[in-house]
């Protein structure tokens, strides 16, 4: 069984490749620049670009199942080509924003294209990535041992990238996941303040938490570039919620967690979802 992994060099795609190889699958990876892919030598790396659907024809030959990275602009064309080539199952790497009704149009068109096809489909909808904190806080932790954040008591259920990949891999390899959208969060409702504490514990050094205004945070994120700059508006847009949590903290009240447990990878894998502490231990060297 040959499986095509698009987004194979991404943070989740690389792990999907790894898991598929461990399961004995024949893996083909789609990359815009195969020479820079740095993927395992025992897979077939082919050149192609989701923004140019016709470039995918050679990559789709002989493929039975596909891990689809979301690219909304060409979603229908890519899905049509896959079905025409004989792909019978597609797993869409989507977003929890679809579940919450906050999708900006980046993921929903891809989901709809898959659903409108004749292929078996599964959507994987991860929530906030734990990795975001590496991209956001990593530079200041490495350089100054400080985190500057406007909303330290903001809390959510961040998810480990390996849990996301495990769900996608199960949907690719196993039966019983077709026609299902899996929202994947982490097992803990954890504040940013406690996340900083966990990182400090993992690296074995004090990390100072400095509370800044949203305006100042936005300036810093834009200056930092990369993930921080690309998401500056989103990252500083939780003022009302953060203010409510701060008021609760001053009143000695705990921040309210969402009603009921958040859906995690355990529903699919049967294994407990990885905690933020697990993730920090996996990435302690990246913060050092």
TrEMBL record:
<dbReference type="Pfam" id="PF13460">
    <property type="entry name" value="NAD_binding_10"/>
</dbReference>
<feature type="compositionally biased region" description="Low complexity">
    <location>
        <begin position="252"/>
        <end position="265"/>
    </location>
</feature>
<feature type="domain" description="NAD(P)-binding">
    <location>
        <begin position="7"/>
        <end position="173"/>
    </location>
</feature>
<feature type="compositionally biased region" description="Basic and acidic residues">
    <location>
        <begin position="279"/>
        <end position="288"/>
    </location>
</feature>
<dbReference type="InterPro" id="IPR051604">
    <property type="entry name" value="Ergot_Alk_Oxidoreductase"/>
</dbReference>
<dbReference type="InterPro" id="IPR016040">
    <property type="entry name" value="NAD(P)-bd_dom"/>
</dbReference>
<feature type="region of interest" description="Disordered">
    <location>
        <begin position="246"/>
        <end position="288"/>
    </location>
</feature>
<protein>
    <submittedName>
        <fullName>Nucleotide-diphosphate-sugar epimerase</fullName>
    </submittedName>
</protein>
<dbReference type="InterPro" id="IPR036291">
    <property type="entry name" value="NAD(P)-bd_dom_sf"/>
</dbReference>
